[in-house]
Amino acid sequence: MSAFDDLYDANTRFAEKFGDSGLTGRAGRGLAVVTCMDSRIDPLGLLGLKPGDAKILRNAGARVTDDVLRTLVLAVYLLGVERVLVMPHTDCGMSKVTDPDVHALTQERGVDTRSLEFHTVPDQSEALRHDLTRIRTSPFLPEGMPIAGAIYDVRTGRLTPAAF
Ligand SMILES: [Zn+2]
After folding, report:
1. I need a surface site. Which of 75, 79, 120, 155 has the fewest CB within 10 A?
2. What is the pLDDT of residues 83-129, one digit of tens each?
3. Nearest Cα to 164, choosing from 73, 153, 151, 152?
4. How far is the CA of 1 from the centre of ligand 1 (A)?
């Protein structure tokens, strides 16, 4: 028995019905979505997408970190991405704590995380504006590539496009 047996069992059933779509790793609809790791978000479902359509980049808070930028560069030049949607969400855990809060919490368990930046989100609108600007002004991404931000409401399932 391992802590992962439920998953391996489920996969056995999945693979029995699996049909190879023949898709490549390119984003069929030319889209990359940057969103949060929140387990309530179904990025494909809420955007009417299916496997093969888009690159989905997830982290805590849907933040445009150095690693997200690195991944977007690869997605654009190697994998067919031509537009990027940054999609944070309501009720995000990252907007409820600050970096010092996280350091204090881990400290209680004897772990010093002060060398890590958690990119917590004191102001979601400001963070989204900052992250969109980061993509738009990146010297490594094509000028004029469509970039948008939208907040996903985990209670209603609705997406509200950001006005900037
Ligand atoms: Zn979140």
Report:
1. 155
2. 999 999 999 999 999 999 999 999 999 999 999 999 999 999 999 99
3. 151
4. 32
